């Protein structure tokens, strides 16, 4: 019963986080016209650090041993520095559609890293669930718009790096969650991201200066920092602390699905059969994996 409750709670946290990220592209589209990518990333991380740092200071849990701090900084460098940085660069060269398609590989990579690092079993049902949800995402995104031309090769390779490193970050979060609570991990990981983002922003600003700041841009930055960074990252990390990484990886699929749904609603494009079919497959994949985790504790496994 406790395991089922943890699975459900983890699912709520993970899906909510991914849905927030799926919806943030509407806000990002506006703010990125004024604030260049790495500068915006720095602002997001600083807001997240300020919020989580204040909470941890109030709880007197701000300081941890130096050795552990370095370890959590390293986790943040992988996730918020390398992965998000590669996502920005890859999307710049390959385009948004390619970015959305390539990064859907993350759950499959999470499954692989969970097997290699955490020694989580690879049941047939879990592999099938990831495959089913992946097909659903690709249907929603429409592969006919995916560009495989030579001019996007660098972008696609960089996006693959982004997907790989995000998967590695996610698995590392579950690994360190055995020693520290989610808020502590999230705070130090955000600081780790700044180690990469700050130098990148310093190199970026001379060639891409900040534009005119309006009230809308300020509200957009606050939303990205408070909701999409501080809140969503705590929820995502908590999901992977509660649920095995091979199961929680499927929550990621809520991101592209939410993004397409919001774009459809906001742009009044209508609900297409393609979107409905893809959404059904995504939901079916998530439910299949959750059902297997809750009712089949001893499943057929390929052990590491």
Describe this structure in words.
The chain has helices at residues 2-31, 37-58, 66-94, 96-102, 106-117, 124-141, 153-176, 182-204, 215-242, 245-248, 254-266, 273-295. Mean pLDDT is 79; it is low at 296-304. The chain starts with a helix and ends in a 9-residue tail after the last helix. The protein is built from twelve helices and no strands. The protein is mostly helical and 304 residues long. The protein has one domain.
Q: Which word captures the global form?
A: globular
**Helix proportion:** over 70%
Number of domains: 1
Residue stretches low in confidence (pLDDT < 50, at least 5 long) are 296-304
Describe the biggest sheet? none
- The counted number of beta strands is 0
- The secondary structure category is mainly alpha
Name the beta content range: under 5%
Mean pLDDT: 79
Order of helices and strands: HHHHHHHHHHHH
What is the number of helices? 12
Distance between termini?
28 Å
| Rg over C-alpha atoms, rounded to the nearest angstrom | 19 Å
Keywords:
single chain; 304 residues; mainly alpha; 12 helices; 77% helix; globular
Reconstruct the topology from this structure.
Elements: H1 2-31, H2 37-58, H3 66-94, H4 96-102, H5 106-117, H6 124-141, H7 153-176, H8 182-204, H9 215-242, H10 245-248, H11 254-266, H12 273-295
Helix pairs in contact: 1-9, 1-11, 1-12, 2-8, 2-9, 3-4, 3-7, 3-8, 5-7, 6-12, 7-9, 8-9, 11-12
